[in-house]
């Protein structure tokens, strides 16, 4: 059986008034539709197509089959875009540039159809390229990208940003598109056009996380083929500092703490410790001997950075801990109350006194850890609140007040206070007796009289001292050193008429005329030098009924 090919041409002519270029393109829209577009430069008046059909001819046909069909002509494409055709067709004229038509036509498998355009320039006919129509097109991916990262196969994003993956494919029949990471498929929105063979898949990730780092693949397929493209998402995130518990350490001990963290992306990490805005060290916080001034809030700060020109990233994480430096109780500041200068007070019978103590310690003592004692020559008795003595105690201070002072109240008082760190602190106070002064409020005249009297008294004192010196020099009587056997005065001012009232500065007289004799710090040091604290602690530890005769000096 002799098969012969028969060629038929449908002539498409493009008449233009100026020189130009021309090209033709086509693609399948559906099984019974295709698009053909003729593009040119210049001005055109009419458009006619050339179509060449190659088909199988049977011998009985008696020769070649030829058929010329004027299937499509477009006139005045610049204005009216008038279409003449025996086919079902819809055309769009693009002024000065192109005619694009959708033609309804079922393609038969025995036909091979080719189309081309031709234009006339100065009487010369110029043909376009030839385009062939096929009944199928294998799937092909033309675009797979993340947002504006066109053509980038390794995309870097910051954690918590939003990103959209777009995959575009072409083919006929229209390809099915899917997105997967490893073997996991993602749901996505698919957009398809009714006048094209293009399919598009969009996948939006909101607040991308570090778990989304990895390789993503777009797959497009139809019955004639499959295509796929991959890209890699690199999610940047900061390191994660592991929390350090608060530290409690005794003063003088060593401290060594390393900042621990989970690396981020990128994994290169800079680490340092900071206290109150000041950088103290790098990854390791080291103190050979901790001081109380080292206490405070410490933060471990871990940082990673990334810069590739398109994406700049700095990741920071931090954790804080508190360093508590523990140290025993000591006296905070000297008490400046006029009723308690230093640790010694001179008060008259019937008066009152307050001994105060401010604690410097960590932790601060509890109220129960402040214990006041009244000591005699042989033992010390814990003081409890009564009608004439009461104790006011808070965490950082304690006050002992004695009112309506009697002879038995004079002597030594001891405060012991601890906080469980080191040895308890012992503070010693002395209450000495002072004769009474007039209690009437002083007027200006009183002050003037007192000044005059004191001036005269000063002269008498000088005369008395000189006479006493002469008397002692002549008699050379022996003296007896009795030592410091007791802190309680043994001589009553009321019974000894030769004892003069001590000089009291006017600024130390209160509004009731009460006077307080102030002792220098040198005198206070002399008092402390006469006290054996070990004996004091032994006396406190004894039972209240003890009659041991051990002296305090």
TrEMBL record:
Ig-like domain boundaries: 138-234, 239-317
Alphabetized UniProt keyword annotations: Disulfide bond, Glycoprotein, Immunoglobulin domain, Membrane, Transmembrane, Transmembrane helix
Gene3D superfamilies listed in its UniProt record: Immunoglobulins
Example of a GO cellular component annotation carried by this entry: plasma membrane
Alphabetical GO biological process terms: cell-cell adhesion
Keyword Signal: no
Cross-referenced PROSITE patterns: IG_LIKE
Membrane topology: Single-pass type I membrane protein
GO MF assignments: cell adhesion molecule binding
Cell compartments where the protein resides: Membrane
InterPro entries: Cell_adhesion_signaling, Ig-like_dom, Ig-like_dom_sf, Ig-like_fold, Ig_sub, Ig_sub2
SUPFAM superfamilies per record: Immunoglobulin
Pfam families in alphabetical order: Ig_3
Transmembrane segments: 445-467
Secretion signal span: none
Keyword Nucleotide-binding listed: no
Name used for this protein in its record: Ig-like domain-containing protein
Species: Dreissena polymorpha (Zebra mussel)
């Amino acid at each position: 059986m002799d098969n012969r090919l028969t060629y038929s041409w449908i002539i498409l002519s493009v008449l233009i008034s100026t020189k130009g270029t021309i090209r033709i393109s086509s693609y399948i829209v559906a099984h019974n539709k295709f698009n053909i577009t003729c593009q040119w430069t210049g001005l055109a008046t009419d458009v006619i197509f050339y179509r060449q059909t190659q088909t199988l001819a049977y011998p009985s046909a008696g020769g070649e089959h030829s058929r010329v069909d004027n299937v499509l002509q477009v006139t005045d494409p610049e204005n009216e875009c008038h279409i003449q055709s025996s086919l079902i067709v819809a055309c769009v004229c693009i002024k000065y540039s192109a005619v694009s038509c959708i033609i309804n036509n079922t393609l038969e498998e025995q036909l091979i159809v080719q189309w081309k355009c031709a234009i006339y320039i100065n009487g010369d006919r110029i043909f376009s390229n030839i385009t062939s129509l096929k009944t199928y097109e294998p799937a092909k991916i033309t675009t797979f990208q993340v947002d504006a990262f066109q053509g980038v196969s390794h995309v870097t994003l910051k954690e918590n940003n939003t990103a959209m993956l777009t995959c575009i494919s072409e083919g006929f029949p229209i390809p099915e598109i899917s997105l997967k990471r490893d073997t996991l498929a993602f749901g996505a929105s698919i957009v398809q056009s009714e006048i094209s063979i293009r399919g598009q898949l969009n996948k939006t990730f909101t607040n991308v996380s570090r778990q989304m780092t990895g390789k993503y693949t777009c797959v497009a397929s139809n019955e004639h083929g499959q295509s796929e493209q991959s890209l890699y998402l690199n999610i940047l995130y900061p390191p994660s500092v592991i929390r350090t518990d608060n530290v409690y350490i005794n003063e003088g001990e060593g401290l060594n703490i390393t900042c621990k963290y989970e690396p981020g992306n990128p994994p290169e990490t800079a680490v340092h410790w900071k206290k109150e805005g000041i950088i103290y060290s790098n990854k390791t916080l080291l103190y050979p001997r901790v001081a109380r001034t080292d206490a405070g809030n410490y933060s471990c700060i871990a940082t990673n950075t990334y810069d590739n020109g398109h994406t700049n990233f700095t990741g920071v994480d931090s954790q804080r801990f508190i360093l508590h430096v523990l140290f025993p109780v000591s006296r905070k500041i000297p008490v400046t109350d006029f009723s308690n200068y230093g640790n010694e007070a001179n008060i008259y019978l019937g008066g009152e006194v307050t001994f105060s103590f401010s604690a410097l310690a960590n932790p601060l003592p509890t109220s129960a850890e402040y214990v006041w004692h009244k000591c005699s020559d042989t033992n010390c008795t814990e003081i409890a609140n009564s009608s004439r003595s009461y104790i006011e105690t808070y965490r950082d201070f304690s006050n002992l007040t004695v009112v309506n002072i009697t002879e038995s109240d004079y002597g030594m008082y001891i405060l012991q206070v601890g906080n469980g760190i080191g040895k308890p602190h012992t503070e010693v106070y002395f209450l000495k007796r002072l004769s009474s002064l007039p209690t009437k409020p002083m007027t200006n005249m009183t002050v003037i009289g007192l000044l005059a009297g004191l001036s005269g008294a000063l002269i008498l004192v000088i005369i008395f001292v000189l006479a006493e010196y002469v008397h002692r020099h002549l008699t050379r009587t022996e003296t007896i050193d009795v030592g410091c056997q007791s802190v309680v005065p043994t001589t009553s001012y009321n019974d000894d008429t030769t004892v003069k009232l001590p000089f009291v500065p006017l600024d130390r007289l209160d509004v009731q005329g009460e006077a307080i004799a102030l002792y220098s710090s040198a005198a206070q040091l002399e008092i402390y030098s006469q006290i054996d604290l070990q004996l004091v602690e032994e006396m406190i530890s004894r039972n209240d009924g003890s009659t041991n005769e051990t002296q305090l000096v």
